[in-house]
Amino acid sequence: MSLIKIKNNITNNLKNIYGWKTDRKIVVFSVDDYGNVRVDSKEARDQMNKQGLKIMNRFDALDTLETREDLEASYEVLSSVKDKTGRHAVFTPFALSCNIDFEKMADEGYENYYYELLSDTFKKLSEKYPKAYSGAYDLIMEGIKEEIFLPQFHGREHLNLKVFEEKLKKRDHELMTALENRSFTSISMSGYSTISTAAAFDFWEFEENEKFDKIIREGLTAFKKVYGYSSNHFNAPAGREHPIIHNTLNKCGVEYIDTPFIKKEHQGKGKYKTIINYTGKQNRLGQTFLVRNVVFEPTEKRNIDWVPYTLKQIEAAFRWKRPAIISSHRVNFCGFIEEKNRLKGLEAVRKLLHEIVKRWPEVEFMAANELGDLVVGDKK
């Protein structure tokens, strides 16, 4: 066995040692970044390239708001299998409820930041790109009704407002170029060692967490307007937040927190504390943590055959009597800029799902918050 395989085997087992146990074979797909406008279109990407904005990663290159075809193709793949109860596979999109209001910002000379509801974003893009976006928002509603696509809260928007406003005031070239192309991407440096430009709840001074209260409350109110129900499960953009904001989330009805197994928790001014988490762990407020223990990024180039690699991780989870919580991102299933990206990602999902039901015919597919309900119910 190669050193890489030995390392992967050790990792797969270590991350499953602790946590809630069950004899049931449960599979959850937690997929980040739905509802977010990162790149407007291929034309926008080409313009940004000409103006010197680098493609830092596959998100900068391919990650667009989900189109009608993206959703239709995803639903078709998810519905191609059924578990032992007769239920098809389901995505839990950790989704944004708002986006930058590019038009209003432009109309006012980019003096201030404005945001809009996701439903308004879809309306605008349906008019701009009718072939791609006409009916897309309705498909999200249909996916919710059919319980194949059940969003939970990922934040109001996928950007760090502190850094955004500071760069806006300075007329930062990268930010202005992105905004003029109706995108928020290729912003390489935040100016702070502890803040990513896309991480909504990153901070430098601990006191900055106070400003997140308003963002969370507005984001969750918008979530209900956009998706038709209140979210009770949260995952921070980029997976980073200080637990101080869990107070606001708790007051707003959020019962479950998606969090990393090993979390470097920022305490302010570059000081960190390492926290070990596991599925079923509860905080002082009684909120329950769910930890993803399987990684599936089929369009990420890491010299990995993703389907067998993911199956090994699921196998390890089941061996330790843990649910398999699969972590992924929308970019794997985006085809607006490059159709072959979506084809590759969804073909991998199809192969993975069919192999899952073949190997474990007793499998059960669940949304992430449904698993949370099961974990909490089992503890009572």
Protein topology:
Blueprint: H1 3-14, E1 26-34, H2 42-50, H3 58-62, H4 68-78, E2 91-96, E3 98-100, H5 102-107, E4 115-117, H6 118-128, H7 130-133, H8 136-145, E5 152-155, H9 161-170, H10 173-180, H11 212-227, E6 233-234, H12 246-251, E7 256-258, E8 262-268, E9 271-276, E10 288-290, E11 294-295, H13 306-319, E12 324-329, H14 339-359, E13 364-366, H15 368-379
Parallel strand pairs: 1-2, 1-12, 1-13, 2-5, 6-7, 7-10, 11-12
Antiparallel strand pairs: 3-4, 8-9
Helix pairs in contact: 4-8, 4-14, 13-14
Textual characterization of the structure:
The chain is of the alpha/beta class and 380 residues long. The protein has helices at 3-14, 42-50, 58-62, 68-78, 102-107, 118-128, 130-133, 136-145, 161-170, 173-180, 212-227, 246-251, 306-319, 339-359, 368-379; strands at residues 26-34, 91-96, 98-100, 115-117, 152-155, 233-234, 256-258, 262-268, 271-276, 288-290, 294-295, 324-329, 364-366. The strands form four sheets. Strands 1, 2, 5, 11, 12 and 13 form a six-stranded parallel β-sheet that branches. A hairpin with a 2-residue loop joins strand 8 and strand 9. The mean pLDDT is 96.
Entry keywords:
single chain; 380 residues
Can you give the mean pLDDT? Answer: 96
First-to-last CA distance: 43 Å
Tell me roughly what share of residues is in helical segments: 40-55%
Proportion of beta-strand residues: 15-25%
Name the shape in a single word.
Answer: globular
The tally of beta strands, per DSSP, is 13
Helix vs. strand class: alpha/beta
